[in-house]
Design a protein that fits this description.
Layout: H1 4-10, E1 17-18, H2 19-25, H3 31-46, E2 50-53, E3 56-59, H4 72-81
Antiparallel strand pairs: 1-3, 2-3
Protein backbone atom coordinates (compact mmCIF):
# COMPACT_ATOMS: atom_id res chain seq x y z
CA UNK A 1 0.00 0.00 0.00
CA UNK A 2 1.21 3.48 -0.78
CA UNK A 3 0.01 7.05 -0.37
CA UNK A 4 0.33 10.13 -2.52
CA UNK A 5 2.75 11.53 0.04
CA UNK A 6 4.98 8.48 -0.39
CA UNK A 7 4.88 8.91 -4.17
CA UNK A 8 5.92 12.55 -3.85
CA UNK A 9 8.73 11.61 -1.45
CA UNK A 10 10.11 9.16 -4.01
CA UNK A 11 10.22 11.74 -6.81
CA UNK A 12 13.47 13.71 -6.90
CA UNK A 13 13.25 17.51 -6.87
CA UNK A 14 15.48 17.71 -9.94
CA UNK A 15 15.11 15.47 -12.95
CA UNK A 16 12.54 12.75 -13.41
CA UNK A 17 11.85 9.12 -12.63
CA UNK A 18 10.68 6.42 -15.03
CA UNK A 19 7.48 4.59 -14.20
CA UNK A 20 9.20 1.20 -13.80
CA UNK A 21 11.77 2.73 -11.44
CA UNK A 22 9.01 4.31 -9.35
CA UNK A 23 7.21 0.95 -9.17
CA UNK A 24 10.41 -0.69 -7.92
CA UNK A 25 11.03 2.07 -5.35
CA UNK A 26 7.47 1.62 -4.01
CA UNK A 27 7.93 -2.19 -4.12
CA UNK A 28 4.77 -2.76 -6.17
CA UNK A 29 4.32 -6.34 -7.31
CA UNK A 30 0.61 -6.78 -8.02
CA UNK A 31 -1.25 -5.50 -11.04
CA UNK A 32 -3.90 -3.79 -8.88
CA UNK A 33 -1.14 -1.83 -7.12
CA UNK A 34 0.25 -0.68 -10.47
CA UNK A 35 -3.25 0.33 -11.57
CA UNK A 36 -3.72 2.38 -8.40
CA UNK A 37 -0.34 4.02 -8.98
CA UNK A 38 -1.39 4.91 -12.52
CA UNK A 39 -4.63 6.46 -11.22
CA UNK A 40 -2.72 8.46 -8.58
CA UNK A 41 -0.15 9.69 -11.12
CA UNK A 42 -2.90 10.75 -13.54
CA UNK A 43 -4.61 12.69 -10.75
CA UNK A 44 -1.34 14.41 -9.76
CA UNK A 45 -0.73 15.27 -13.41
CA UNK A 46 -4.21 16.78 -13.77
CA UNK A 47 -3.64 18.83 -10.61
CA UNK A 48 -0.34 19.98 -12.17
CA UNK A 49 1.67 18.82 -9.17
CA UNK A 50 3.81 16.59 -11.36
CA UNK A 51 4.58 16.63 -15.07
CA UNK A 52 4.67 13.61 -17.35
CA UNK A 53 7.28 13.70 -20.10
CA UNK A 54 6.97 10.45 -22.12
CA UNK A 55 7.44 7.92 -19.30
CA UNK A 56 9.28 10.21 -16.86
CA UNK A 57 7.50 11.90 -13.97
CA UNK A 58 8.90 14.98 -12.28
CA UNK A 59 7.78 17.72 -9.91
CA UNK A 60 6.25 20.81 -11.46
CA UNK A 61 8.79 23.45 -10.47
CA UNK A 62 6.40 26.29 -11.39
CA UNK A 63 3.76 25.20 -8.87
CA UNK A 64 2.84 28.10 -6.62
CA UNK A 65 1.70 27.17 -3.14
CA UNK A 66 0.12 29.75 -0.88
CA UNK A 67 1.69 29.11 2.51
CA UNK A 68 -1.31 30.50 4.39
CA UNK A 69 -3.87 28.22 2.75
CA UNK A 70 -4.49 24.83 4.34
CA UNK A 71 -6.89 22.07 3.42
CA UNK A 72 -9.99 21.40 5.53
CA UNK A 73 -8.42 18.09 6.58
CA UNK A 74 -5.40 19.92 8.00
CA UNK A 75 -7.66 22.27 9.96
CA UNK A 76 -9.62 19.30 11.40
CA UNK A 77 -6.34 17.63 12.33
CA UNK A 78 -5.13 20.70 14.20
CA UNK A 79 -8.41 20.90 16.11
CA UNK A 80 -8.15 17.24 17.07
CA UNK A 81 -4.61 17.47 18.48
CA UNK A 82 -5.39 20.50 20.64
Amino acid sequence: MFTVAKILEMLPREGGVELKTLEKMLKLTKKIERTRLDIALNALTKLKIIEKDNENFEFNQDLEVDEGTRSPGWIRYLKRIK
